[in-house]
Please model this.
Amino acid sequence: MTNLVVKHLSKTIKYIFAKNQGQPEALQRNFAAFIPHQFGDHSKCEARFCGHKRKPGVKYLHRSLPYKARLKNPALCEKLVSLFEPIVGNTTVYSDLGSSQACEAAHRSASLRAPKHLHYGESESLDYRLKATAACINEGKSYLSEVNDS
Model:
């Protein structure tokens, strides 16, 4: 496999994840069609993603692959199918993968309540601050004021 083929496959995988986020059945169908599509078998493809299905009369070109031609090595096809079998079987796990924005926001919120330069590490204050941050994220912004009122 050349670098161009690897880049094409990774770009296609990213596209499959992006277009099927939160849809485990669609993700499974598209991953099942992913490898055969690269080798010219469009029987499992959906018209939504496959130019060959959308325009059956027109010669289909793989724009990102070398020479714009399908892959032809049967041994590579078998290896890729066996490599992606576990992924196709676990698509329910992968369908909810999304942006890391929520994690980044939680990290920022925790770092605001317990800044590293103030060294809360050896006190119980750090534990309280991180738990309060988690409660605010999970329960909402009004959590701390509710606790203070009670």
